[in-house]
Design goal:
235 residues, alpha+beta, 4 helices, 22% helix, 30% strand
């Protein structure tokens, strides 16, 4: 089915960078619900009751999507991604560089804001945690394949890439390397957590935008603009 597409592999041994939601300063998450410490303790216990234990959640958590977390939301799937339908298996995504992770995450963040705050005309901020993870394993190499298979970087439809991801997952492959659809950078889509180890924090980021405007500024150091992005260019 994918003989011409999947015909090259690489023995990969390097870091990949992941960018997730994460606050710069630790906060008590439930203190806005009640001033009573006992109420906060109940809320913490309730949250912990549904928590899926893991010795390395920054590695394993994405693989739970489709295995456990998505089930209550069927048939509407909240965890669909480029290489997974979100219902049968999860994928861990990283990139070769921080800038690529920013382009990818800004695109999805702006989609969320468009759905949730489409009528807002005000500044909204989001904080991110960026970390490096060691990746060791044989990966399917789809870099430069987008020239012959533009569906790999389709900015709207994931139909083709989800088929590729499902096929590789069924074959027991570790994952793949592919060009980002939002920039010229390279993404890693990892299908098996055994390839990943050695999590190290890299930096914290703050995204700043107004849903009514086509601009996102990114700060690595508070108050100092590092990148300015225009989300319409990613769509």
């Amino acid at each position: 089915m994918y003989d011409d597409l999947i015909n090259r592999a690489v023995d990969y041994h390097d870091d990949v960078v992941r960018n997730i939601k994460g606050i710069r300063t630790t906060q008590a998450l439930f203190d806005d619900l009640s001033n009573d410490e006992r109420d906060n303790e109940v809320a913490v216990a309730a949250e912990a009751a549904g928590y899926i234990p893991s010795s390395a959640p920054l590695i394993t958590r994405p693989f739970d999507y489709g295995a456990v977390i998505s089930y209550p939301f069927v048939p509407h799937n909240w965890h669909e991604t480029r290489f997974s339908d979100g219902l049968h298996y999860g994928v861990w995504y990283g990139s070769h560089d921080v800038e690529t992770t920013v382009c990818e995450s800004v695109y999805h963040w702006r989609l969320f804001l468009s759905d949730s705050f489409s009528t807002e005309d005000r500044t909204i901020t989001g904080e991110r945690r960026v970390f490096s993870v060691r990746c060791d394993g044989i990966l399917i190499d789809l870099r430069r394949k987008e020239r012959a298979y533009p569906q790999l970087v389709d900015r709207v439809s994931y139909a083709y890439t989800q088929g590729v991801g499902g096929y590789l997952h069924h074959q027991g492959q570790n994952g793949l390397l592919v060009r980002s659809a939002r920039s010229k950078g390279i993404n890693a889509a990892i299908l098996r957590p055994v390839c990943l180890s050695n999590v190290r924090d890299k930096c914290q980021l703050t995204y700043i935008t107004n849903p009514a405007q086509d601009r996102v500024t990114v700060e690595r150091q508070r108050g100092r603009v590092w990148l300015t992005l225009y989300p319409s260019r990613f769509s």
